[in-house]
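As the work plan foresaw, our protein records have gained a structure token line. A representative record is set out beneath this paragraph:
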Amino acid sequence: MNIKKRLLVTFLLLLILPLLMFFLIIFIGRRAFGDGDGPFFLLHPEGMVQVTFLQAVLTLVLVIAMTDLILVIWLYRSIIRPLNLLTVATNKIKDGDLDFSIPTESESTDELEQLCEDFEEMRIQLKKQIDTRLQYEQDTIELISNISHDLKTPLTAIKGYTEGILDGVADTKEKQEKYLKTIYTKASDMTVLVDELSFFSKIDTNIVPYNFTIFEADDFFNDCVDEMSLDTEVKNVTLDYISKLPKGQRIIADLEQLRRVMNNLIGNSVKYMDKDNGSIVVLAEDTGDNITISVQDNGRGIDEKDIPFIFDRFYRADSSRNSKKGGSGLGLAITKKIIEDHSGTITAKSIPGKGTCISFTLLKEGSKNASLELGEITDANFRKKPWTRSKSGSKQKKTTEIPTNETIIDVDYTGKE
């Protein structure tokens, strides 16, 4: 019952109930004491009043007092009590205490109960926002610590090699070239780190414009793999692309940002590879309205306890060991944000010591609601012909056929070998 109806009922009860109770008591008294001269009889059978005026007034006062007591209890339970709960809740929030709850009745139409429910929902949302802010502040502290370390290390190296050149330690041309190459490499690492931080700040605030286009998936991923193969071969890591897509399958994505995703995932696999003969396979499969791209490696893997957090900003599993690898811990967070902005999903599976598989989905051409989800889409007419280097150094067309079992990483990412 809402408050308006409750107040109306209260008014009517205060008006009618005392009279009804008064006449009820008179009736009971008359039935109890008969038609004699007892003090509780109101009317003589012959029409004469037998109850004194004082007795009538006292009876009426008693009835009104009892009625008011009942109504006060009812009003307290339905109005005053919820208001008291809200008062206590506001005082707790004012003191910074959000670890409480307001008891509410489910499916209530009462305005005060609904107010309590809304207040409880507000408390929950406020607590989430504060927890998020505290987590963000903690992440910022960790970021500053990580960046300080990751910048200090190459800066120290640059300073040391520069002093070596100035002091004449590098007294030969070969040493000088070696020192200069090291300085250049360290400076490049810092540039990558700063660029990554700058890009994340933009993408996290949704100010990075996307240019969604339609292009052939095999051509694009072949080109990505070919581009990165030169870097992986230097580190004794093979990189292959396996396509299970229909010939000419086209997808919808931002070419630049999707290339960033592939560089991040393949780069991570190379960075944390602990095998002498490392292997990375990029697998493309048709999964209905989407295609699924999986980047599998036979590296050291990720501990199960770290899997739920690897896409969080600034997170680096086993930071004491990973600090030697460098990086801000933003690569996978950036990757996840880009994929989600493409209306896709990204997941990770890993077996420590065996390898890791990170998979993400992309919309195919003609997918339902693609234009609604991604906005304006143009045709990129992506027709680059990917090439890869053979062992002899000549270029040859990169195959999209499934290679032999020796090329595919033999790891069951459900947890069984």
Notes: The chain has a mean pLDDT of 77. The chain has nine helices and ten strands.
